[in-house]
Fold:
Amino acid sequence: MSRISISYLTKYGNNKTAMEQLSTFLKAKGHEVILFDVDETGPEQVPLSDIYVFSSSTHIGGLPGKMNKFMKKFPHKSGRYALSVTHMLEKGGPEKNSGKVLYAMEEDLREVGMTKAVDPLSLTVNGMKGPLEDGWQNKVETFAVAILKLLG
Structure:
């Protein structure tokens, strides 16, 4: 059994919904999963884990400052991570802003010495407040399977 820590930032609840689904799937496979709301948790409260999942919404086309600060202060510097982002359908291509956010998240975690473990999860939100795109549960499950393969 592995320990998986999931830290998420959500404004309208879409990230929370997706990360709760991820947690449910991983727990059903026998793993210990701990969820952390970045609005209510400091990075020092996240325990040593086998993998860390960071999930953020996209705010005005960028990474929210609170998530940026959380990751830059993350104490587990040799850990492996997986990323998830929620975003509205974007002009200029389906992944324009979410790609920028994922890049910023990767840079923050690379600076503290962490290692990317799996490809990121990108979920579209219909409108500013949601709901999540049709089929989001399947994307979350595919993301979970990738994490499980990594953990063996």
Observations:
- The mean pLDDT is 92.
- The CA atoms of residues 52 and 81 lie 5 Å apart.
